[in-house]
């Protein structure tokens, strides 16, 4: 009996997530839930998991046989959570807050398949150089940070703001590949053309007779 390879549905509008999943050689469809991201949760790791689960749940309900993946990235500095800046002025304020210190990026990835759901969270510590006002204003005006949690993109010009990363880089840009690859393999989806079961528990709903 060969386990069936489920269709993969990515419940995310993030171009970074599309690109990273494509790079793994996974064929997938995009369906976005448009879930509202408000939550009273203040713990960043729990918030990232909760929002990823919320983003994926409604899409999973519409795609019961597929493996549905959703993600959420949360940037935390001290006790504050930095969402996507509203405008360049708020983006500059975020950068001043991050300048010369270490903050945490958490991405929750949720997987839904055969009626079961599961979320895992990755953490990366990111240290910013001390930024002067000219570079803060320049970066904020570039607009690059506006659609990104924390107000910067480590994959773009924002790379120049960072002096150190502790943890997985792909997690910072919104899709921790170690977690994603583990989830794909656990559900029998080939990564780079290879099916390699991670040994995670499989439910009857995930297998069909060959
Ligand atoms: C810190 C950081 C965040 N980001 C991005 C990743 C996410 O797309 C975004 C965080 O917002 P999210 O709410 O996690 O995701 P999204 O709104 O872009 O997409 P969707 O809800 O449809 O899945 O910030 C970067 O691209 N680079 C970075 O360095």
Automatic annotation (TrEMBL):
CDD domains: Maf (cd00555). It catalyses: UTP + H2O = UMP + diphosphate + H(+); dTTP + H2O = dTMP + diphosphate + H(+). It is found in: Cytoplasm. The keyword Cytoplasm applies. The keyword Cytoplasm applies. The active site is at 72 (proton acceptor). SUPFAM superfamilies: ITPase-like. Gene3D superfamilies: 3.90.950.10. Keywords: Cytoplasm, Hydrolase, Nucleotide metabolism. It is an enzyme of class 3 (hydrolase). The record marks 16, 73, 155 as: Important for substrate specificity. Its cofactor is a divalent metal cation. Belongs to the Maf family. YhdE subfamily. HAMAP family: Maf. NCBIfam families: maf, PRK14361.1. Nucleoside triphosphate pyrophosphatase that hydrolyzes dTTP and UTP. May have a dual role in cell division arrest and in preventing the incorporation of modified nucleotides into cellular nucleic acids. This is dTTP/UTP pyrophosphatase. It comes from Deinococcus aerophilus. The lineage of its organism: Bacteria, Thermotogati, Deinococcota, Deinococci, Deinococcales.
């Amino acid at each position: 009996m060969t386990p069936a390879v489920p269709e993969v549905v990515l419940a995310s509008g993030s171009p970074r997530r599309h690109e990273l999943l494509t790079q793994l050689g996974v064929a997938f469809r995009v369906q976005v839930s448009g879930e509202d991201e408000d939550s009273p949760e203040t713990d960043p790791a729990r918030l990232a998991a909760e929002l990823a689960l919320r983003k994926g749940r409604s899409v999973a309900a519409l795609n019961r046989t597929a493996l549905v993946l959703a993600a959420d990235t949360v940037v935390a500095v001290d006790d504050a959570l930095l969402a996507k800046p509203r405008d360049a002025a708020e983006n500059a304020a975020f950068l001043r807050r991050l300048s010369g210190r270490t903050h945490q990026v958490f991405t929750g990835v949720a997987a839904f398949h055969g009626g079961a759901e599961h979320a895992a969270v990755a953490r990366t510590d990111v240290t910013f150089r001390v930024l002067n006002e000219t570079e803060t204003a320049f970066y904020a005006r570039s607009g690059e940070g506006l659609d990104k949690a924390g107000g910067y993109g480590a994959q773009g010009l924002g790379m120049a703001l960072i002096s150190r990363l502790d943890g997985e880089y792909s997690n910072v840009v919104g899709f921790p590949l170690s977690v994603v690859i583990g989830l794909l393999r656990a559900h029998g989806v080939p990564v780079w053309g290879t099916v390699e079961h991670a040994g995670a528990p499989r439910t009857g709903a995930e297998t069909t007779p060959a």
